[in-house]
From TrEMBL:
<feature type="binding site">
    <location>
        <position position="226"/>
    </location>
    <ligand>
        <name>substrate</name>
    </ligand>
</feature>
<dbReference type="InterPro" id="IPR011060">
    <property type="entry name" value="RibuloseP-bd_barrel"/>
</dbReference>
<feature type="active site" description="For OMPdecase activity">
    <location>
        <position position="93"/>
    </location>
</feature>
<dbReference type="GO" id="GO:0006207">
    <property type="term" value="P:'de novo' pyrimidine nucleobase biosynthetic process"/>
</dbReference>
<dbReference type="Pfam" id="PF00215">
    <property type="entry name" value="OMPdecase"/>
</dbReference>
<feature type="binding site">
    <location>
        <position position="62"/>
    </location>
    <ligand>
        <name>substrate</name>
    </ligand>
</feature>
<feature type="active site" description="For OMPdecase activity">
    <location>
        <position position="98"/>
    </location>
</feature>
<feature type="binding site">
    <location>
        <position position="40"/>
    </location>
    <ligand>
        <name>substrate</name>
    </ligand>
</feature>
<keyword id="KW-0456">Lyase</keyword>
<comment type="pathway">
    <text>Pyrimidine metabolism; UMP biosynthesis via de novo pathway; UMP from orotate: step 2/2.</text>
</comment>
<feature type="binding site">
    <location>
        <position position="159"/>
    </location>
    <ligand>
        <name>substrate</name>
    </ligand>
</feature>
<feature type="domain" description="Orotidine 5'-phosphate decarboxylase">
    <location>
        <begin position="34"/>
        <end position="261"/>
    </location>
</feature>
<dbReference type="GO" id="GO:0005829">
    <property type="term" value="C:cytosol"/>
</dbReference>
<dbReference type="InterPro" id="IPR014732">
    <property type="entry name" value="OMPdecase"/>
</dbReference>
<dbReference type="InterPro" id="IPR013785">
    <property type="entry name" value="Aldolase_TIM"/>
</dbReference>
<keyword id="KW-0210">Decarboxylase</keyword>
<dbReference type="InterPro" id="IPR001754">
    <property type="entry name" value="OMPdeCOase_dom"/>
</dbReference>
Length: 276
């Protein structure tokens, strides 16, 4: 596969086959940012406050909606409004990890109604192909109300020490991304994966979007096995979008810090595409 990582976000926005990826690249290009903030806050007020303050500097807001102490559906309605106000996408980091029949119910419906507000969700490959097949099937149902507005990322590697998301697990991630590319737009991973050979082979015009997490400008890791790299090294390794949580929201001035992540991530992207 000819890697698309040397192309500009604008070019990729024009040619991508998936409408959510086109939108994502369009947002990155127009706001000049490849930052995804992982807003792992535990009250609705803090979550909405950080989303409103950082909105202008990010392409995507990533949530773990189930960690809110005071969750009510009104919080995601407010988040949706902020996503429109600041032009960002919402990524619910749900990491679906069950049999197909269960994840369909967890994604579309249920207590959290995730499909009604999250543009992007992710899943692990632990259950095998069925999980991707099931989520894709839901998104393709005749009566699915958000057609062309929702997409899936596969968690293909993990940043935590001793992770088992390697080898055959990662290979299957790539195979399923290729097989279900009508819903899968890319990966959460710390390296590019296009060179991995699978039965379906690289797709014609393959352009999976790489989200890299474990990004922090001030720390090398935490005490629970998280491992960090900088925005620059992540983008140099192929990240299209850099996900940062505590490095941005847990510092005295999140807005100034988000701007610094944005600048470092953007400059690394410009050098990668040869425009620096
Ligand atoms: O920057 P942090 O360490 O405060 O937060 C990192 C965020 C957390 C994790 O749940 C998530 O990124 N994450 C993921 C994702 C996005 O799927 C995968 C992974 O391997 N490591 C990781 O930290 O919300």
């Amino acid at each position: 596969m000819a890697s698309k990582s040397k192309l500009s976000y604008g070019e990729r926005a024009k040619h991508h086959t998936h409408p959510v990826a086109r939108r994502l690249f369009g947002i990155a290009e127009s706001k000049k940012t490849n930052v995804v903030v992982s807003a792992d806050l535990t009250t609705s007020k803090e979550l909405l406050d950080i989303a409103d303050k950082l909105g202008p500097y990010i392409a995507v807001l990533k949530t773990h909606i189930d960690i809110l102490d005071d969750y009510q559906y009104s919080v995601v309605e407010a988040l949706k409004d902020l996503a429109v106000k600041h032009n960002f996408l919402i990524f619910e980091d749900r990491k679906f990890v069950d049999i197909g029949n269960t994840v369909q119910k967890q994604y579309h419906g249920g207590a959290l109604q995730i499909s009604s507000w999250a543009h992007i969700v992710n899943c692990t490959m632990l259950p095998g192909e069925g999980i991707v097949q099931a989520l894709t099937q839901t998104a393709e149902r005749e009566d699915f109300p958000y057609k062309d507005e929702r997409a899936l990322l596969i968690l293909a590697t993990m940043t935590s020490k001793g992770s088992l998301a390697t080898g055959e697990y990662t290979r299957l991630s790539v195979e399923c991304a290729r097989k279900y590319s009508q819903f899968v737009i890319g990966f959460v991973a710390s390296r590019t994966l296009g060179e991995i050979e699978t039965e379906a082979g690289p797709l014609e015009n393959e352009d999976f979007v790489l989200f890299t997490t474990g990004v922090n400008m001030a720390s090398k890791g935490d005490k629970l096995g998280q491992q960090y790299q900088t925005p620059k090294s992540a983008v140099e390794t192929g990240a299209d979008f850099i996900i940062a949580g505590r490095g941005i929201y847990a510092v005295p001035d999140p807005v100034e810090t988000a701007k610094r992540y944005r600048e470092e991530g953007w400059n690394a992207y410009l050098s990668r595409i040869g425009e620096a």
